[in-house]
Amino acid sequence: MENFNEEERACLCALNRIFGFEPKIGRSLIEAFGGASAVFKASQNELSELLGSYSRIRFLPLITESAFESAAIELEKLVSDGCRFIGIGESGYPKALLECDDPPLGLYYKGILPPEEVFDKRPQIAIIGTRSLSYYGRDWCRNIVEAMSKAKVKPLIVSGLALGVDVTAHRAALDFGLPTVGVMATGIDDIYPPQNIKTGQLMAATKGCALITDYPPQTAAVRINFLRRNRIIAGICSATILVESKIRGGGMMTARLANSYDRDVFALPGRVDDPLSQGCNMLIRETIAAPIGNLSDLMERLGLGAAGIDLKADFKKEVEEYYADMDETSRRDIIKLALAVKSRRGIGMDDLCSLFGWTFSKVSRIVTTLECDGFISVDLLQHCSPRVAKS
Predict the structure, then answer these.
(1) Domain that holds residue 348
(2) What sign for the dihedral angle of Cα 159, 164, 167, 172?
(3) Domain boundary among 36, 56, 80
(4) How many other C-beta atoms lie within 10 A of the C-beta of residue 381?
(5) pLDDT tens digit sequence for 365-387
(6) Three-state SS annotation for 41-52
(7) What angle do CA 180, 86, 118 make, to 5 degrees?
(8) What CATH number has the domain bearing residue 345?
(9) Which of 42, 170, 262, 303 is deepest in the core (most CB within 10 A)?
(10) How much is the pLDDT for 311?
(11) Containing H/E element for 170?
């Protein structure tokens, strides 16, 4: 399938619509007839014989000249909208997907650079997880991406453009200068959820980044679409990182799919009583996922080379040593607040004032010092969390 013309691409586009949820059948027809266009030129008897009785009833009435013409019109509109359709086997189609047993027959693509420049130039790493991201998960997600940005080999970050871990990974990639691709569960003409529209638009307009989907334009976001989308995330990437997940969730499905595709899977361990870590802990217990600990070690295991970032093994000791030359009273207070933030991840500055009986001015001054020195991070709502790693 090396020689692509507009007819072949339109036929693949039409077959992708027809066999979207059962791409194996569509691919079998293409291989049997020697190409997508040959499928549409085959007789009804030939198609019927290959499809079998059950599939014949469902699919035979859909393989028509009208389906081909609709796909050809769709391709023309895609170009005018700054998008394109990449057929399976075509240049730019992610090679890793071809190793899977159920790759989509084509992908809709939106990006500044050609897909070859996005998928063929660097390794792809998936970062996935829950929509209900905790401060712990957010910090680890951003620090993992930051470590990747400092590694010898810079990867492409892949996720699903959902709330929580997905969008955090995409934004971190943009912040730290890494390319990122969003695999959508809708048509290429719609970004879901609405809260992530600006992030999706920025990705589509940033060199090296892109949006992709195997769903035709005007496909709405429904539950089953997300399940089908997950196989693309797992299939594109050489490794998948699960940041946080409950026992049941899309992230767990994607991680298990990645394992079934013989890809590396990593999971962030968490507290045994934290529902958001139970999925990660389960995959680690089942030896499906390797636990994430030292960030430099993770970069090496991902094949990205050294990153020059290590996990803080002893937060208290490092804070004490860093402020060793400070006067005793100030040093005691800064250590006290740092440890409070470590044990109460996401604590607000008002709560710190109440906890210690200090003025807001004093808390603000100490928080600013710890933030500037890289020990904690503070979000827009003034919630404080320890930084996972310090370079």
Answers:
(1) 315-390
(2) negative
(3) 80
(4) 8
(5) 999 999 888 888 888 888 888 87
(6) HCCHHHHHHHHH
(7) 25
(8) 1.10.10.10
(9) 170
(10) 43
(11) helix 165-175
